[in-house]
Automatic annotation (TrEMBL):
Official protein name in the record: Heat-shock protein Hsp70
InterPro entries, A to Z: ATPase_NBD (IPR043129), Hsp_70_fam (IPR013126)
Organism of origin: Pseudoxanthomonas composti
PANTHER family associated with the record: HEAT SHOCK PROTEIN 70KDA
Leader peptide range in chain numbering: none
This protein's record includes keyword Lyase: no
Molecular function GO terms recorded: ATP binding; ATP-dependent protein folding chaperone
Length: 454
């Protein structure tokens, strides 16, 4: 069986085509899960799997068989490479056997917990490791050890997806089409894109996939729109997710296959709005703009997906900062509180997209502490992102030279009315089609997977 996998910055999902219909993978009662993972103990790397005596015997048999096969083909393969491949196969079999045994959710997949449950478990335990939005770090200049850690985290998440799908569909899952943005968030330019794909490829292989193909996410969304269109027409697909905004220009619909002409993208999305809203709406409660605490301290606290910046924030001393701001900053440094704050910021962003105001309580920082935010404040906080989005769409419009027949809008941020307004302004004569904000991309990836990996 082949899966389509949307490994997202904020949320992840997967689906497969069964008897001609796209069927989502169910993670508990949901068809997606927050891209967060909690390890109650020190996170184990993929290479840390230690086989027992029986598994060592199995390993040696696999190595010997692979060596004989290589020799018969006139090849000479290094012993280390043969063992690494055999170890991956033995580990995959072992992990699948673990999944067949009844165990508690905290013990599954080396004690990892995923999604919203990961945050709840982290808050309840007050220790361990919580990793959020690892996709945001794939394109950054990473120390070799940090790269190994990020690869291990991505492996755990992809393995969770594969084994969940395998259990639901009751058939081996070995192949997938994995979505990718046009432009990963990166500190290294195009080299960051290459590194991100290398990490995802290594993680997918370690997670038990034999074959993986990557497809740009707006192209996947175009495939989804194509499947629902009876007549041929020209479309601009705008996919606005947590970490990136991607655009594709395509011909879709009718009897001919979809044809993607070109794609564009920027490494900006919903998490940038979260950061701006956190700094403007929440951080004044902690003294931002009032005390002499440097602004970058507040950015470190708000950037929960960046493990390095989170660690740096926890190392700062605030003993000399006047009350109430010093004690509040110290409380924010307590285990789990930056994650609690980030979840509150995201919830406020969602609520304010359809309400005039919203009050969020921060009693985990200080009794009776709260903040009341206005919808106008959200729009103002989003303005930097919206400005970059306007520039991107203006470039698309200039490159195309005319309005398309339709604009297909998808991705989690496509729910926001201020985002929809920017799209309408960019293509005023095009018909606006609203795709499924959460599942438009993964549905297209599943359709691509069903057609083979090429």
């Amino acid at each position: 069986m082949r899966l389509g996998i949307d490994f997202g910055t904020s949320n992840s999902a997967a689906a497969a085509v069964i008897d001609g219909a796209v069927v989502p993978v169910q993670f508990g009662e949901q068809a997606q899960f927050r891209t967060s993972v909690y390890f109650p103990e020190v996170m184990r790397e993929v290479d840390d799997f230690v086989p027992n005596d029986a598994q060592e015997h199995q390993l040696q048999q696999l190595v010997d068989a692979a060596r004989r096969q290589a020799q018969a083909a006139g090849q000479e393969r290094p012993a280390q490479a043969l063992r690494r491949e055999a170890l991956r196969a033995v580990r995959r079999d072992w992990m699948e056997e673990q999944m067949r045994q009844p165990r508690t959710s905290a013990a599954l997949l080396q004690n990892a917990v995923y999604g919203e449950d990961a945050l709840d478990a982290y808050f309840a335990e007050g220790e361990g490791n919580l990793v959020q939005s690892p996709k945001s770090m794939l394109g950054y200049n990473l120390h070799p050890r940090a790269r190994q850690t990020i690869t291990g985290i991505a492996t755990h998440i992809l393995e969770h997806i594969r084994l969940t799908a395998q259990r639901q569909f009751d058939t081996p899952v070995r192949e997938a089409v994995l979505g990718r943005p046009v432009q990963f968030r990166s500190s290294m330019g195009e080299a960051g894109n290459d590194q991100a794909l290398e990490i995802l490829q290594a993680a997918a292989t370690a997670a038990g996939f034999d074959r993986v193909r990557f497809l740009e996410e707006p192209s996947a969304a175009a495939m989804r729109h194509h499947a629902a269109s009876d007549t041929r027409h020209e479309v601009v697909v705008v996919d606005i997710g947590g970490g990136t905004t991607d655009v594709a220009h395509a011909d879709v619909g009718g009897a001919l296959p979809p044809a993607v002409r070109r794609a564009w993208g920027i490494a900006r999305g919903g998490t940038d709005v979260d950061l701006a809203l956190s700094l403007a709406g929440y951080m004044p409660l902690f003294g931002r703009g009032i005390t002499r605490v440097p602004n970058h301290h507040y950015a470190e606290a708000a950037t929960v997906h960046d493990l390095t910046r989170q660690r740096e924030f926890r190392l700062h001393k605030y003993d000399s900062v006047d009350a109430p701001y010093g004690p509040r900053l110290q409380a924010l440094q307590d285990t789990g509180n930056t994650a609690r704050l980030a979840r509150g910021v995201e919830r406020s962003k969602i609520v304010l997209s359809g309400a005039a105001q919203h009050t969020d309580t921060l009693d985990y920082i200080e009794p009776a502490l709260s903040v009341t935010l206005q919808a106008a404040g959200l729009t103002q906080a989003a303005e930097s992102f919206l400005g970059q989005m306007r520039e991107l769409l203006a470039q698309v419009a200039a490159d195309i030279g005319h309005d398309p027949d339709a604009v297909f809008l998808t991705g989690g941020m496509s729910r926001a009315p201020y985002v929809q307004q920017v799209v309408r302004e960019a293509f005023p004569r095009a018909r606006l089609v609203h795709g499924d904000p959460s599942f438009g991309v993964v549905q297209g990836l599943a359709l691509a997977a069903s057609g083979g990996l090429g």
